[in-house]
Structures are given as C-alpha cells and as structure tokens.
Write a structure and sequence with these properties.
Oligomer: single chain
Radius of gyration: 24 Å
Shape: elongated
Largest sheet: 6 strands, mixed
CATH class of the largest domain: Alpha Beta
CATH superfamily of the largest domain: lpxc deacetylase, domain 2
Number of domains: 2
Number of strands: 23
Number of helices: 8
CATH architecture of the largest domain: 2-Layer Sandwich
C-alpha cells in the first residue's frame, strides 16, 4: 500500500508479510540503517497525542492504531509491517484499506495455540473527563460513549467483537475532528496529510466529508476501532468487557498497561525471593479505620507493582531512586517499599561506624511515592514531578541497614500542576518519619 501519513504528510510505502508463531506484530523501518524493528507492545508506546506512536531506540512509527485494529479484528496474531517512513499511510481514515490487504493476502492457521488473556478482576481508570473500565467477560465486548466537550454528537455503541462484526460494524468507521480543533493541530505540526478524503470534519451542526457518513454513529464506532488497536498492545488477544466514556489514545494505552500488570501478577506472586511481611502500621490519627493501614506483606491478588513499573513513571535512577516496589494504590492513597541495604552509597559517609539513612532521603522517598500517584494518571504520562516544599517534618527514630521502609502517602490536594500529600514512613510498624510535601508537575 502507498499513501501519505495523516500527521506528517509524507509519502510512505507499506508492506504486510507473514511472521512465525509467537512473533506478534512488529513494525520494521526499512529506511533506517539496520532495519530496526519495534514490537507492538505497550511498553514501546512513546506518544499518544491524537494517535499512537511506537518507539524503540532511534526508530519511531506514528499512527499505528488503525493497522493494529485491522490485525486484531481479523484475528491475525503474527505479522511483519515494513515501512519506508516514520508514519503509516492513513488511507481513507478507517481500517478498511488494511483489512482489504489482509483479505487479499489471506490468513493461515499456525501450529501454536492462541494465548488469550481473560480479565480476571475489574480495572478502573479515571482521567479527567474520561472513564474506562475493564470487566471479566468470556469474549471481547466494547461499550463506548463519545461526545465533545460541549456535549455535541453524543453517541453510544456496544459490540461484541468477531471477524464478522469487526468487518461489518467497525472497520469502515473513519477518523474525525472538530473544526475548531484544526488551527491548534496545524500549529502543533499535525494533520499535514489530512483532508476530507481521509477524515470527517464536524463544524457546528454540519458534517464535512467527501461522502455521506458510513454509519449514523460513525464517530463512536471509530473510537471503538481505536480502542481495539491500542488494547492489542497488551500482546495477546483479550477477553473482557471494556466500558469507555470519552476515551483517548492516552487512556487506551494506560488501560493496556494496567491489563499487562494484571497479566503479570500471578508470575510476580510465584517469585521465590519476596521480602518478608512487615507488621501492620498503626492507623493514622483520626482515620478511624484500622483496615486502611499499610503492610509490606502483600497477597497475590493485590495491585502490586514492581521496579519496572516504578522506573517507567519516575525519571530517577541510581543512586537516587528511593522506591523499590509499589504495594498498594487505593484511590488517593499509595503504599510503597524501599529496602535499605548496607550497599547504599550514602552509608560510606553517613556514618562509617554507625550507618544511618539520612532523614532528607526519607523525605525524598515520600516525594517520589507521591509523584508516582500523580504520574500514573493517563493525562500526566511523560511528565516530571518536581519537589517544591516540605512542612511539618518530623524524624522519630533512625533507619539502619536491613530495615524495610514502608512509605504511606495520601494525596490531600491536587489542582492543575500542583499536588500536596501527607507521607508517613515506618519500619516494622513503627513510624520513623512524617511530613507534608508539595510538588509540581511539568513536561518532561
């Protein structure tokens, strides 16, 4: 297939080729030295502004969601996508051109069994005006509501995905935008290849397009198309009921990340070397709820997130990363763990004969954990959390090598870019430090 990219506007040649079992979907930049490949996995998502971008090293591919949706809808698990530019051709703005390529080539079964993933526990994501929920279900079903910020063109559609329903109900639905968005998109260097031949434009009560709408509710159907493409980044066919209200590529990809975390949870529970459980910390004064106290011993079903997840959100690295694991997230509250070992670099000088963890680093740990709570929200992905101030700081007893520092943080205020949180550090159930911290989010 030949065409232009929607946002970059450049010409691109695209080829689909077969791939071996368990390869997954891979994009290959044949125009770059070494012909680098990028596997279509959520950990390779680099940007989600108006489309989904995959990146790995110096290679990037923009606007991949329609291709991924075509493969997922048609039941293709393994394929290689060759491109000679950094963006897929947009075609007519739907997934139909890619579906026709797949139909022309034909699909063959492979010897390996398909590895489905079925949602086991509900997952909820709330980000601004967007709500997304993944619920257990024996097939992939998507229910979506879409409207613009003024409540215009509110549409609702629900569909259970199969190759037949995909081709009939979703694949032809085209991308769209509102007329008042165009100026901002152009200023940001986007939609250089956009036209009424590959997008529907909504202006007040008029719909501008070179052909009639393909469905009365084409806009919400295209939103479901995008969800299918973005959620395919979990790397396995899904079974579950996805309920989405005003979704975006950012929230779609964040939901994919949380599904991957749920997928990996049983493996994490089987790891042989987990930290021993710590006594429950005492309830905070005035909380009146002993069940809300933090423990470091986490059962297999809880929302535990390891160091890979922490390092995706925080920019900190050795020797300044003060969080090893997130144990629990409950609304505006997060509990995390820092294993304090004699190998910490600051023990060389603090103090050589009596090693003690500096109190300011406990304070830094509280700020980093508070940052995780903010940065895990879809609208804050890719931002940085800057430590601004600390108040009511108290250090109650020393923290020494061998201690497990449990960091319990509650977000007490969040307005725009500014967040405020109360943090308590404990060891063995005893409070060792506490503070109120303020931080600011900024673009990375």
């Amino acid at each position: 297939m030949s065409g232009v990219g929607l946002h970059g506007g450049g010409r691109v040649e695209l080829t689909f080729s077969p791939a071996a079992p368990n390869t997954g979907i891979r994009f290959r930049r044949v125009d770059l030295e070494g012909r680098p490949e990028i596997e279509a996995r959520v950990e390779h998502v680099g940007e989600t502004t108006r489309s989904t971008t995959l990146s790995r090293g110096h290679a990037r591919v923009h606007t991949v969601e329609h291709i991924l949706a075509a493969f997922a809808g048609c039941g293709v698990d393994n394929a290689l996508v060759d491109l000679d530019a950094g963006e897929a051709p947009i075609g007519d703005g739907s997934a139909l051109p890619y579906v026709r390529m797949i139909q022309e080539a034909g699909i063959l079964p492979q010897a390996e069994p398909r590895q489905f993933y079925q949602i086991t526990d509900p997952i909820e994501l709330v980000a601004g005006d967007t709500t997304m929920v993944a619920l257990p279900h024996d097939r992939l079903k998507i229910t979506c509501t879409h409207a613009d910020r003024s409540g215009r063109y509110t549409q609702v559609f629900s569909v259970e995905l199969s190759p037949e329903s995909w081709l009939r109900e979703l694949a032809p639905a085209r991308t769209f935008c509102f007329f008042e968005e165009i100026e901002a998109l152009v200023k940001n260097g986007l939609i250089k290849g956009g036209s009424l031949e590959n997008a529907v434009v909504i202006r007040d009560d008029a719909v501008l397009t070179t052909e009639p709408l393909r469905f009365e509710d084409e806009f919400v159907r295209h939103k479901i198309l995008d969800i299918i493409g973005d959620l395919s980044l979990v790397g396995r066919p899904l079974q579950g009921h996805i309920v989405a209200v005003r979704p975006s590529h950012g929230t779609n990809c964040e939901l994919a990340r949380r599904i991957v975390e749920q997928m990996r949870r049983p493996d994490a529970a089987m790891q042989a070397f987990l930290p021993p459980p710590v006594k429950p910390a005492p309830a905070r004064a005035g909380s009146g709820d002993a069940s809300s106290t933090a423990t470091a011993g986490v059962e297999a079903g809880s929302a535990e997130m390891g160091i890979d997840y922490v390092m995706r959100l925080l920019p900190h690295r050795y020797p300044f990363l003060m969080v090893d694991r997130v144990l629990r997230v409950e609304g505006n509250r997060i509990v995390a763990l820092k294993n304090v070992t004699i190998n910490e670099p600051y023990f060389i000088g603090h103090f050589p004969t009596h090693p003690i963890m500096p109190g300011v680093l406990q304070l830094e740990a509280m700020a980093q954990v508070a940052g995780i709570l903010m940065l895990r929200q879809a609208e804050n992905v890719g931002k940085l959390a800057y430590f601004m101030s600390a108040e009511s700081v108290k250090w109650r007893r020393p923290v020494r090598p061998g201690d497990q520092l449990v960091i319990d943080v509650e977000l007490t205020k969040s307005r725009g870019k500014i967040g405020r949180a109360k943090g308590v550090c404990s060891v063995g159930g005893d409070t060792v430090s506490e503070a109120e911290v303020t931080f600011m989010l900024t673009d990375g």
